[in-house]
Design goal:
The strands form 2 sheets. The protein has a 5-stranded antiparallel sheet with strand order 6-5-4-3-7, with no helix packed on it. It has a two-stranded antiparallel ribbon with strand order 1-2. The longest helix is centred in the last third of the chain and has 11 residues. It is built from 7 helices and 7 strands, in the order αααβαββββββααα. By secondary structure, it is α+β, with helices and mostly antiparallel strands. It is extended and about 85 Å long. A hairpin with an 8-residue loop joins strand 3 and strand 4.
């Protein structure tokens, strides 16, 4: 039995432990606030929430792990009932936090065909639709380029330090 150092009673022990685990006082660990922020997110925030991981080949090529999904990307579904199905993204439905993939449909009782909604976290992007904006995002987020970014190399610093004396 863990005792609360402030002696607030047995019901407050759990709350005390949660407070002790939090490091940043500006970020809430409240489930209620997290859910409100997620489901009440604006469209530009939902775009970021609806990011999907890149395939191993694309990850190696661009040095980026995830990217916001968009129409005309080609994806492989890796989770759920539709696992191992591939197709092109037909629609990104930000309001419902889902995407619709080409040929991933269900037949209704009246014979009508409807798209099955899939959450972007359950897919892997296998082919990106590259345009100028997407290219700039990939260049900006390139981790390898970020590591070599800097004003001087070690060799340049060593030679300049030798000439200082």
């Amino acid at each position: 039995q863990l005792a609360c150092p402030l002696d607030l009673g047995c019901h407050s022990v759990g709350r005390f432990l949660a407070a002790a685990m939090k490091y940043n006082p500006n970020v809430s660990s409240s489930r209620r606030k997290s859910r409100k922020a997620h489901f009440g997110a604006a469209s530009h925030q939902r775009r970021i929430i609806m990011s999907a991981p890149l395939s191993k080949e694309l990850k190696a090529k661009y040095n980026v792990a995830t990217i916001p999904i968009r129409k005309d990307d080609e994806v492989l579904i890796v989770r759920g009932d539709e696992k191992d199905r591939e197709g092109k993204v037909v629609q990104v439905y930000r309001k419902k936090f889902c995407i619709h993939v080409d040929r991933v449909t269900r037949e209704k009782t009246n014979g009508q065909s409807v798209q099955i909604p899939i959450h972007p976290s359950n897919v892997v992007i296998t082919k990106l639709k590259i345009d100028a904006d997407r290219k700039s995002i990939l260049d900006r987020r390139n981790k390898a380029k970020a590591l070599e970014k800097g004003k001087f190399t070690e060799a340049e610093v060593a030679t300049s330090m030798a000439t200082v004396d």
